[in-house]
Design a protein that fits this description.
The chain is α+β, with helices and mostly antiparallel strands and 103 residues long. Helices cover 30% and strands 27% of the residues. Strand 3 and strand 4 form a beta hairpin.
């Protein structure tokens, strides 16, 4: 298991409203309404963020709007955050889950 996967499971277990699932073949957490909040992707975590949380994530070096495949357009609101910022992942995960619960 990779470091990203280990941290994903730790974070997922800390969020009682989240349910582990799959998205694009990757492990993810979904809200009770079935909307995906975040997922582990290679050595990154990808979060569905809005507002100040999105701005904060995008201000970090190496973070960008997620693009699952080169030939596909970026996914609006989904921010890829590298493992370099793993200490920020729990807060982004909580913000993402809180956000998608409102969708």
């Amino acid at each position: 298991m990779t470091r990203t996967e280990e941290l994903f499971h730790q974070i997922a277990e800390s969020l009682p409203d989240g349910k582990k699932s799959k998205m694009f073949g990757a492990i993810c957490v979904k809200a009770p309404n079935g909307k995906a909040a975040f997922m582990a992707w290679k050595d990154n975590m990808v979060f569905k963020l809005e507002g100040d949380a999105q701005k904060e994530a995008l201000s970090l070096d190496g973070c960008e709007v997620f693009k699952p495949m080169e030939e596909r357009p970026p996914m609006g609101g989904w921010i890829r955050v590298p493992v370099d910022y793993e200490t920020k992942w729990p807060a982004f995960a909580k913000q993402a889950l809180d956000y998608v619960k409102t969708l």
